[in-house]
Amino acid sequence: MKPLAGESVAVIGGGVGGLSTACYLADRGADVAVVEKNEQVGGKASRLERDGFRFDMGPSWYLMPDVFERFFADFDRRPEDYYELERLDPHYRIFFKDDDRIDVTPDLERTKRIFESYEPGAGEVLEEYLECSKVNYEVGMEHFVYEDRERLRDYIDADVARQARGLSLLGSMQDHVEDYFEHPKLQQIVQYSLVFLGGSPENTPALYNLMSHVDFGLGVWYPEGGIGSVIDAIRDLGAELGVEYHTDRPATAIKGRSGGFKLETPRGPLLPDLVVSNADYAHTEQELLPPEKRGHDEEYWNSRTYAPSAFLLYLGVEGEIENLAHHTLVLPTDWDDHFEQIFDDPQWPEDPAYYCCVPSMTDESVAPEGHGALFVLVPIAPGLEDTPEIRRQYRDRVLTDLAENTGTDLEDRIVMEERFSVSDFADRYNSFRGSALGLAHTLRQTSLFRPPHRSAEVDGLYFTGADTTPGIGVPMCLISGRLTGEKVVEDYGNEHGE
Q1: Which residue intervals define the domain Amine oxidase in the entry (predicted)?
Q2: Is the preceding peptide bond at 90 cis, omega within 30 degrees of 0?
Q3: How far is CA 255 from CA 25, 275, 285, 290, 301, in A?
Q4: Domain ranges of the chain
Q5: What string of DSSP letters covers 54-121?
């Protein structure tokens, strides 16, 4: 008998964390139903399809392929059972706003020469930096990501101390990077991935230099059909394991406790034994639970540091999209002001740093023949007002900036356009303050300082996804599902289970 045989579980939210958790619980014998507010599963990794164009609405970088391999291997499967991967070359292109441009490619020797051109000796220093990053990645992933150390005493033992020896655990990424590189552009190149963690160089722990190994060491890939194909794969895996999916069915209240939950929805209640919430953590506590059942009060959520929201333009364009790569970054030579306008003095960035994704350069299926698909993402502060007039004005600013700094003039060739920003993240995903990613990875919001997977107030209620450990990003949410599943089995698995 499998350890969760006879248990029924409702998973609120079909984001990556919820889909992953559902797979692990179903594989252990539970009867699992995923209830999703929107018309499709995937959460912020949803698809937008219109007029023959198809976009990944949120995540668009396939990073950390080892995590996907390990996830599917847990169910005796492989990613290639569901989708094909293509390694991108270049990984990405960077336009600096002083007419400078570089490509970061899979060829490390070429990248070292680029670094050397900015700063004598920086090529060899990059190799040293990446060695440190690789150690942080390998030790950090195995001993601090796949193992959920949720209490302080979990860190106070000889084994943890031995594993942590030499890791860059404390200090900011800015301080850490300055120990290696003086040139501001080189600092930006090794720090840009902090955007995926929802932080800035000043507030993200140095440990996350492991992201440079993700970039330079493990590579940047494209799954055929986009990240949406990965979501389809996880959903289909769940269905093979027996998971049921209910879309267009938001949860409106969580009542009861283990063995006797009542999950309210507009289409009638579900009566599971256990509940896992992949909905926004603050939304779950503040909107779905009564006050006496909340693990954190309103003051707690208001005091947290949130990852940016985003201003997004999804554009269908007639003809080719010239000059850009599949992934392109457009960066001011000094991006401090942009980060300050996200974290310190919230306002729409005056000189934005932004990201462009052109999937049609790699995958012709995402746009009609003779057209290209492009989206532009500008990180902005959560909670900003984003009226239609503000969006229109900022849209014009971004397209003008793109033309001026990359030579890519799209204005007269746009045949399809959608805009998405702060209020949409709040409305579509119930994201607190309209954050695109959730809780940022600051030193005080990393590891055991993130909200727990288990509810302290309601027996049988669990949480998964980006606000829990290990944190933000598709790979981390896959691992969050595994960690949540382990806790459910630990608490409710029958003693005669496998």
Answers
A1: 17-484
A2: yes
A3: 21, 10, 12, 8, 22
A4: 8-84+225-304+442-492, 108-148+158-216, 306-429
A5: EEESS---B--HHHHHHHHHTTT--GGGT--EEE-SSSEEEEETTTEEEEE-S-HHHHHHHHHHHSTT
Residue 156 has pLDDT above 90, yes or no: no
Q: CA-CA distance, 491 to 147, in Å (whole number)?
A: 17
Other Cβ atoms less than 10 A from the Cβ of 269: the count is 15
Residue with tokens 């494209």: 222
8 Å CB contact between 267 and 253:
no
Please state, in angstroms and as integers, the Cα–Cα distance from residue 118 to each residue in 145, 199, 216, 261, following that order.
35, 26, 18, 61
At 225-251, the pLDDT tens digits run 999 999 999 999 999 999 999 999 999
Q: Judge whether 246 and 272 are in contact, CB under 8 Å.
A: no
Q: In this structure, how many other beta carbons lie within 10 angstroms of the beta carbon of residue 494?
A: 14
Half-sphere exposure of 270 (CA within 13 A, CB side): 27
151, exposed or middle or buried, with CB in 10 Å at 0-12, 13-18, 19+?
exposed
What fold is seen in the domain 306-429? Guanine Nucleotide Dissociation Inhibitor; domain 2 (3.30.519)
Residue type, 38: N
**CA Rg value for the chain:** 22
In the numeric block, which tokens belong to residue 150? 């949720």
Quickly count: other Cβ atoms within 10 Å of residue 109's Cβ: 9
Q: Residue 51 is encoded by which pair of tokens?
A: 């007029």
Backbone angles phi, psi at 406, to 5 degrees: -125, -10
Burial of 361 by CB count in 10 Å (0-12 exposed, 13-18 middle, 19+ buried)? buried
β-pairing verdict for 327-331 and 354-357:
antiparallel
Strand partners, 245: 34
**Of residues 367, 361, 349, the one with CA closest to residue 414:** 367
- HEC string of 248-262 equals CCCCCEEECCCCCCE
* Closest C-alpha among 313, 336, 323, 309 to residue 397: 313
Topology of the domain covering 8-84+225-304+442-492: FAD/NAD(P)-binding domain (3.50.50)
Distance CA 106, CA 99 (A): 24
Give the residue from 278, 310, 296 showing the smallest Cα distance to 437. 310
pTM: 0.94
